[in-house]
Write a structure and sequence with these properties.
This protein is α/β, with parallel strands linked by helices. Helix content is about 35%, strand content about 15%. It has one domain: TIM Barrel. The protein is globular. Bound molecules: zinc ion.
Amino acid sequence: MKERVINQEPKWVDTHCHLQLTDYDLANLNYESIEYLILPGVDANSSKQAKEISMQLPVPAYWAAGLHPHDAKNLSSQKEELSRLIGEADLIGETGLDYYRDHSTREQQHENLIFHLEMAKDLQKPLIVHCRDSFKDTFDLLSNYEGEFPVILHSWTGGNNWTKKFIELGVYFSFSGILTYETAKDLKLSVKKIPINRLLLETDTPYLAPGKYKGQNNKPEFIVETAKQLAMLKDMTLEDLSSITIENTNTILGK
Ligand SMILES: [Zn+2]
């Protein structure tokens, strides 16, 4: 661990930040509290943009290539390009299952997730998984690859029972602004069960702004609000949460 300047504010890794889906002036965002960023793709084109942007930012950034469950129906037409991009990327994703919106059929979503799981296994790269109202099927598919590569459950929203099951699977849980919402009562309880070496933070920029900024487009600097909430729930100082979440992300990236 690098030594820090005394009195410096704690820093955060935003593990899920779609800067390529915003029209922000990226050179001039406030990155003071950011250690580094991870930019996931949602399809071939946005994965390519994530790669390009990651090289131009004033802070270190990693990128991921993948196809979102909403667009799983486009897998066959994008497979070749996605495979090439996934070969180059630091991580794979985001992908997963979304039974809330069902923009692609469940069969298409399964096929898409399995494609990414196989790539993660072959290439030994971390996988970023979106899981909305699809806990059982996500669990069953991930179980087939238990321990083979790091898995990040992005914007985790599971209650106690699913959280417990996924803890046993050895995955990482990334928390978004949803954790700050009044309504996230079950989520707040489930957080207490998660070992600290499995915790991550994210914004999901430009979505899911923390309660304090609700209605606004999210941005990396807003991660501090989610960090404060997580630190409170885990009864940790911000400094300790900062250290452990940076360490966890470094482990995932093999840094
Ligand atoms: Zn996302």
